[in-house]
Automatic annotation (TrEMBL):
The chain crosses the membrane at residues 45-65, 86-106, 134-152, 164-188, 208-229, 241-261, 273-291, 303-323, 329-351, 372-390. The keyword Glycoprotein does not apply. Its main location: membrane. The keyword Thylakoid does not apply. This is Chloride channel protein. Keywords: Chloride, Chloride channel, Ion channel, Ion transport, Membrane, Transmembrane, Transmembrane helix, Transport. Gene3D superfamilies: Clc chloride channel. InterPro entries: Cl-channel_core, ClC, ClC-type_chloride_channel. It is a multi-pass membrane protein. It is found in: Membrane. It comes from Sinomonas cyclohexanicum.
Length: 399
């Protein structure tokens, strides 16, 4: 069953990647190059039209799904034994792929995770496995789906172990590593094998180490604020028929921003690459930081389902540059891209509340060597310390 789940997740990753490429090329009218290049070359009206189309598609689709279909079961619930309804899960994933492909500002990783978990659950139950084994394979299927669509085998395995199962044992590590490795290996037939983000050469400097210690808590404050904002946006999203007007309207607002800043379209890859290239002016980085956070929150507030993994990478990278520029003004010599990497890793680890997964995903996304993990670990420790302190303080205020 481990082999079957790995193969299935790999094929799911291929299908998701091909569907997204087709939609992105059709939406923005380009045939080659990255989404950032395609969106930048498209006329502003086309970006607006793509986002409005995404809003209409998502509004009608999720209104109908939430009105007549079974309730969506999350991967976390499924790994604990709750059955995933196949039609609702597939339809929910297809809608996510549809709006992201049309430029919606939200992560694309939730769809392959849910489809991988659904496939794993169905084959595991059909094979008559014990409930605990079904739960393990569901988590592994979700991690393998993530590994396949982003070519992050180690990060996908750690996601299953650290985030979903919170259990490090032979019974968990073996299928998690095997399924993610198999899935990523199969998906490489279509999914690019190069790192998602291209970075200039990085180097360790004494300033970077000192900055990582000092910036970590600030990044943690930003991550905590973003997490609470996404929770608020999700909790206050329109109910029932309200989504039919709210989503097209809010998506049109995102499209209006994209007319001026094409970097905000999609799951965050375009904005993150702008930051990691280390060539954008600080004013543009600051503007994109606010715009990407706002458009992602607006997308969630509109009622869309999806993830915040790649938006968190983009926001963290830009926050790292903004904070790092202060250090370079006083003690120059550190690559701006190094600040971006450390900021992205610490912010992602803090929003996920998974330090190992966040650090490894940032490393696999960028193809960065292990030496950069040292300052990233320092920043992550400070960031997570602030996140947990704020959570404990918030809980202690509840009567």
């Amino acid at each position: 069953m481990t082999l079957v789940v790995g193969i299935g997740a790999g094929l799911i990753g291929i299908a998701v990647d091909l569907a997204l490429q087709f939609l992105e090329h059709a939406a923005f009218g380009y045939s080659e190059g990255s989404l950032l290049e395609g969106a930048s070359q498209a006329p502003p009206w086309r970006r607006l039209a793509a986002l409005v189309s995404a809003g209409v598609l998502g509004a009608v689709g999720w209104w109908a799904l939430r009105k007549w279909a079974a309730r969506v079961i999350s991967v976390e619930q499924a790994s604990k034994g709750t059955r995933m309804p196949w039609f609702t899960t597939v339809a929910n994933a297809v809608l996510q792929i549809g709006i992201v492909g049309l430029g919606a500002s939200i992560g694309r990783e939730a769809a392959p995770r849910e489809l991988g978990a659904l496939f794993a659950e169905k084959v595991a139950r059909a094979a008559g496995l014990a409930p605990r084994e079904v739960g393990i394979l569901v988590a592994c299927g979700a991690g393998a789906g993530l590994a396949a669509v982003y070519n992050v085998p180690f990060g996908g395995a750690l996601f299953a172990v650290e985030v979903l199962l919170a259990n490090v044992s032979f019974a968990v590590l073996l299928p998690a590593f095997a399924t993610s490795a198999i899935a990523a290996g199969i998906a490489r037939l279509v999914v690019p094998t190069t790192p998602m983000y291209a970075l200039p050469p990085l180097g360790l400097t004494p300033q970077l180490f000192v900055w990582s210690v000092l910036a970590g808590p600030v990044i943690g404050l930003g991550a905590a604020a973003f997490t609470r904002a996404t929770q608020w946006a999700s909790a206050t999203r329109p109910k029932k028929a309200g989504i039919l007007w709210a989503m097209p309207l809010l998506f049109a607002g995102v499209g209006a921003v994209a007319m001026v800043l094409p970097e905000v379209v999609g799951n965050g890859k375009a904005a993150a690459q702008t930051a990691f290239s280390a060539t954008a002016p600080l004013a543009l980085v600051g503007l994109l930081l606010v715009a990407k956070a706002a458009t992602t929150l607006a997308t969630i507030k509109a009622g869309a389902a999806g993830g915040t993994l790649t938006p968190s990478v983009a926001i963290g990278a830009m926050l790292g540059i903004a904070l790092g520029t202060v250090v370079n003004a006083v003690a120059p010599g550190t690559s701006v891209a190094a600040f971006a990497f450390v900021g992205a890793a610490a912010f992602l680890a803090s929003t996920m509340k998974a330090p190992m997964t966040g650090l490894i995903l940032a490393s696999e996304f960028t193809g960065t060597g292990p030496e950069m993990l040292v300052p990233a670990m320092l920043a992550t420790a400070g960031a997570l310390g602030v996140v947990y302190f704020l959570e404990r303080t918030r809980l202690s205020d509840i009567p």
